[in-house]
């Protein structure tokens, strides 16, 4: 195995130039590479290359152009992250309300194993998750203001406080071990079927963690796929030979569809306007390729903004009728 050797800034510049990139200001490029990391910046080079085989840059590609894609991805990552946190907070609030109302507000009541699924194949998962949640109470009891307040003054931590220190992953796992009736009651609040909702949660968690760790977002693909929706149909998204939608199943547009179904109308519209602003800005900064190439990697159709004006309740009503 050949080791990857350290390259100084001058050598990094030479590599880019050797592959055909135009660098108008080498000192500026060095500052960016030092501050942002050559490895992360170069992760955005692929749309600007001739092919997956010929890894030289297209004619006229500049360092500034590639960096603009890097900045674009950071900008939309911040937008998605902001609204994913809204969804996370909504889920935690709804979960805690539903379970507290039914099973009580003290952990000795709401963390009983009998409150969760009786499926024998999930009993280990139930017990393990209860242990995780109790561990969070022990660890965070004195570290967070809210949990510390309840522990000190009342001697317990209600679920609506505990959820604030639970990860999105644990919240998703919590839903998976709930009793069927509890799951359905929560899904009905969102007007989303249980199968779809169960599929959405790990996808949301995956993207939430991706955004938090500043991984490449715009071309990310998830292992899980979402089913076709009325939104796919209304936007005229094409299907492949097997009748599967070519966009909006395991790409960034699939995430947008999920968020459309879980955010309020105004929240989602604001989010789309923020995304449109970032996309328009990138379009202005691209010269060697068209914005359509980036939108395609995101899974976004050219008419993606139309999804913002579709009334969610009308789509949900139609889905229930069908």
Task: Provide structural commentary.
Helix 1 crosses helix 2, helix 4 crosses helix 11 and helix 9 runs antiparallel to helix 11. This protein starts with 8 loop residues before the first helix and ends with a helix. The chain is built from 16 helices and no strands. By secondary structure, the protein is mostly helical.
Strand content: under 5%
Number of beta-strand segments: 0
The stretches of 5 or more residues where confidence is low (pLDDT under 50) are 318-322
What overall form do the CA principal axes indicate? globular
Sheet with most strands: none
**Span of the ends, CA to CA:** 57 Å
Radius of gyration: 23 Å
Q: How helix-rich are the residues, as a percent range?
A: 55-70%
* Helix-strand sequence: HHHHHHHHHHHHHHHH
Structural class: mainly alpha
Instruction: Provide a count of the helices.
Output: 16
> What integer is the average pLDDT?
92
InterPro entries: Abi_system_AbiD/AbiF-like (IPR011664)
Protein name: Abi family protein
């Amino acid at each position: 195995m050949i080791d990857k050797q350290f390259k100084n800034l001058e050598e990094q510049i030479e590599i880019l130039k050797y592959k055909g990139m135009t660098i108008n200001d080498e000192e500026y490029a060095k500052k960016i590479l030092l501050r942002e990391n050559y490895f992360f910046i170069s992760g955005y080079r692929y749309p600007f290359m001739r092919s997956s085989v010929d890894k030289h840059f297209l004619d006229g590609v500049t360092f500034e152009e590639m960096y603009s894609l890097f900045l674009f991805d950071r900008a939309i990552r911040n937008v998605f992250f902001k609204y994913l946190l809204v969804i996370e907070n909504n889920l935690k609030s709804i979960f805690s309300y539903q379970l507290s109302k039914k099973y009580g507000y003290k952990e000795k009541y709401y963390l009983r194993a009998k409150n969760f699924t009786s499926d024998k194949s999930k009993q280990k998962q139930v017990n393990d998750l209860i242990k995780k949640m109790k561990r969070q109470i022990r660890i965070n009891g004195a570290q967070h203001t809210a949990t510390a307040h309840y522990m000190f003054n009342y001697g317990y931590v209600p679920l609506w406080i505990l959820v604030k220190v639970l990860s999105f992953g644990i919240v998703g796992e919590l839903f998976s071990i709930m009793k069927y009736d509890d799951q359905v009651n929560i899904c009905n609040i969102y007007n989303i079927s249980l199968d779809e909702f169960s599929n959405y949660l790990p996808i949301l968690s995956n993207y939430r963690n991706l955004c938090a760790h500043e991984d490449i977002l715009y071309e990310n693909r998830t292992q899980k796929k979402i089913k076709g929706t009325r939104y796919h149909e209304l936007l005229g998204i094409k299907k492949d030979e097997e009748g599967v939608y070519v966009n909006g199943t395991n790409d960034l547009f699939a995430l947008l569809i999920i968020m459309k179904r879980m955010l309020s109308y105004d929240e989602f519209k604001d989010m789309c306007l923020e995304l449109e602003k970032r996309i328009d800005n990138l379009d202005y900064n691209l010269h060697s390729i068209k914005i359509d190439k980036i939108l395609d990697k995101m899974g976004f159709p050219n008419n993606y903004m139309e999804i913002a004006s579709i009334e969610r309740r009308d789509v949900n009503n139609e889905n229930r009728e069908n």
